[in-house]
Amino acid sequence: MSVEEKGFDDAIRDHIEHLPDTKGEEFDKEFERKTIRYVDFRMLPLLGLVYSVSLIDRANLAIARTAGMEDDLQIEIGERYSMVSCFYFVPYVLLQLPSNLLLRRFGVRSCITSYILGWGAAQLGMAFVTDWKQLLACRVLLGAFEAGFFPAMTFIITTWYKRHEMQARLAIFYLSAICISGFTPILSYAISLLKGKRGLNGWAWIFLVEGAITLALGILVFLYIPDFPDRNTFLTPEQTRLVLERVQRDRGDALADKITTRKVFNHLGDWLIWAYSLMFMGGTMVSYAISFFNTTILRSMGYSVAASLLLTTPPYIAAVISAFIFSRMSDKTKHRAGFIALQTLITIVGLVLMGYGSQNGVRYFGIFLSYMGASGVIPGALAYSANNVVSHSKRSVSTALLIAWGGIGGILGTTVFRQQDFPRYINGIWATLGAQFLTLVLLVATTTTLRRRNRRFKEGKITEPLEGQPGFFYTL
């Protein structure tokens, strides 16, 4: 009998009843703390490592361009570089939702391992391309295989924790990846010094070495990747019961409900998840633009190739520190929208300084602020969305939609910064600023709506439980 046929409460009760009897006593705080800490260490470092590799593999194009690929493949002609950067996101966007809907059916281990091996092979293939069209084809394959990873990881993480524990965890997962990938320019520069070995240029060695690392990581993931809480194999039965009970008491969706076509379209009809997705897009648009054009902007300031590569790392480190502090504050106060707004304003200031700063130091500081703000908005929008949806089916749809719009942010971030606008990219700056102003408008709209729904339910003007879950209130 399915979850829907039995009822959700009966399903969770049946699942818990087969675990060892705890005679009704509550789990003690120390046991709870140790269990959740064990989940943190078992899950977040590995997922952060894998995501950092995916960021490296998608963003090293800018570094390879600086390391000689531009001359070899002539991608500086017209809009070739923007096309190679942009077309990655087409399959990346289109395959987000289908891959997330199939995740529970085929299993986390099989899906994630397949994704990693696929994009590792595509990355490796880029080392041997002879023209920009072949590079474009490899980038499309890279986007297709990476499409399912980020929404799957976000979906999995949000099923393990209570609502107001999520943003710090999402930030650890996301920002640890940002921190590791922030050292990519240094690593890539070192790899590029292999220029001439085996007849390969420096940029080809970057793709070759990093692709081989990705393939090796696929084996590690197959052995250690965590699954959903009800399918995990690394916790004891008592620990599993604790995790499921915590989630059930917090929001009532510890176990998965059945995904149907009707449910998917019903979830897609909720304008709020589209609003969260557009906010996420605003953050990723800035993040991708800086990732792909950071070294180019620094070169426009007169820095050498080596200096440009090395100077890209400090903004990443600052972004990690800033975003984690904001995420911890957001979890502590159980508030999302205000912190997203503040970090959006920081992004706006940074973009203005990047575009209109009269001195190189001011423009470089603008890169710091822009990346700090945008990197904080990304986990903030993920947590804002995850806190305000109930059920695995809606969580699956909402996370996929968010990451898909993140991919659209990548498309915009790599196309609005046009070659003819070099070196200040003013048109790209204003297009990116527009996305930040849209985020602020959406924050006002969502906060007003959620606050009104909470108030009307407390006043008895709404009789049905919010999100269909008794005792649930939206997080503002």
From TrEMBL:
It is found in: Membrane. It is a multi-pass membrane protein. Residues 43-452 form the Major facilitator superfamily (MFS) profile domain. One of its GO terms (cellular component) is membrane. Gene3D superfamilies: MFS general substrate transporter like domains. GO terms for molecular function: transmembrane transporter activity. SUPFAM superfamilies: MFS general substrate transporter. This is MFS general substrate transporter. It comes from Dendrothele bispora (strain CBS 962.96).
